[in-house]
Amino acid sequence: MNGPFLTKLEYSGHTDAADRAAIASIVAHHRVVAARQDLSAEPGRSTVLVLLQGVMCRYRVMDGRSRRIASFVLPGDLCRLPEAPPKTSDWNIGALSRCAVGEIPIEALTALARERPNINRILWWMTLNELARAREWLVTGTMPAPQRTAHLFCELHACLQAAGLAEGGAFRLEIGQAALADAVGLSTVHLNRTLRILREAGLACLSRGRVEIPDLAQLRAFATFDGAYLGLNGPVARTGGALHLGT
Amino acid sequence: MNGPFLTKLEYSGHTDAADRAAIASIVAHHRVVAARQDLSAEPGRSTVLVLLQGVMCRYRVMDGRSRRIASFVLPGDLCRLPEAPPKTSDWNIGALSRCAVGEIPIEALTALARERPNINRILWWMTLNELARAREWLVTGTMPAPQRTAHLFCELHACLQAAGLAEGGAFRLEIGQAALADAVGLSTVHLNRTLRILREAGLACLSRGRVEIPDLAQLRAFATFDGAYLGLNGPVARTGGALHLGT
DNA sequence: CGCACTTTTGACCAGGGTCAAGGCAGGTGG
DNA sequence: CCACCTGCCTTGACCCTGGTCAAAAGTGCG
User: Fold this and answer.
1) Can you say whether residue B161 is alpha, beta or left, with left for phi > 0 and alpha for psi between -120 and 50 degrees?
2) Chain A residue with Cα closest to B187
3) Which residues numbered 143-182 in A keep a CB inside 8 Å of some CB on B?
4) pTM surpassing 0.90?
């Protein structure tokens, strides 16, 4: 059940088996979130969420109509970490598909972070990961639509791969084109055309909730994608190092 | 000399005078960086830098020609924090104007973070700050050019204000229009036209390294700027709280 | 079977990129 | 003191990517 989460922790290269067992033991209250449902409005929340299945997104509604997706939350990602007061962010988190999440009591997590340096390190790693992803999107924002979309597919593939959810060059992505458009910053119409371009070029094909990438290397070259920013080391144990700050 | 840094720490609302004195004491080796010079290429670096004067930027060169600026480094900001291995980022840091920086030995910083919870909190705060800024830029990226530029001015003003470097609605910004364009994601030509629009609308005026904002409230309304994401509390002591993670 | 949502396509328009040529400094050397 | 040069700002003309409006074709579900 915690599969994707643990697999991702393994990929991060900052945990050993004991760390993963420890963190798995504090994941409680698995529950299901329906597609299209918002998580953010729950007040007095004292739990961190781990996404285990499905896709969620962090978004903001702009002029009352258009929505901008700042990041996806993929299986293995944490969200709703406690914020530093006063609230520094007004992002909504919404489920784009039917999702399964685990809840982690904050006190348990902080306690674990205090007693296990690797867990602390993982929290830093995840945060820096988000930062790196956000900045990468800033860069891709200036690329033409097909490249940008391709780049997103590459990123999704890499992240899902690290969570053990890719089947070769293919992965499930149960998302409407509208959501994809909001993430890439295109209109639905133009995203659709862009998808057609990618499909006809044989680079990638999204259909019925599934992305198929015939030739990953080719797509990556097309999108000038270099996954180093994701900090995924492969499932290799790797410890040591100090504070592990970034930037 | 450490003025902007300490003022900003004060604004962050997570430090008391003792924290600031402690951190000030480990800032060593003040030095000057010429405009246009890159910092990133220094190997074996074991120091964190605090920017004290001037403006730097975190950028990447895209197709060999065009540069994208992912964030500005303003007085009071840290940069070149140690990275988690393997290197997760390939960003360059360059001085856009003549800069003064302080160097902080990493070991001293990590030691301080270990013994003073507030310092640890500040490191989190700064990182989350960067994250919030990056995401905000993602959102502004979809706004039309004048609003986007105005939004950037508002952000710069708020950050510089927190470092004690704003004089009312005006602040120094010794940056070429090309740099600004790369940050906002516009061409130099179009940025220039956009600046003219803002100037003629009486919203903001950039000239000879100085931005003047006649009516801050008006500019903010125009850009739909809400500075909450910067997490600046004003110079009020505020402690407590636990891990202070965000997202 | 009908309803509602999503995907697809067409036609038209505009924000912003690109190319290219002038202004307008400040710095240097005669 | 002036000619010159280099770099930056400014403006014009033209084009193209991608937005908007609108309608048709799937697709899933009660």
Assistant:
1) alpha
2) A142
3) 143
4) yes
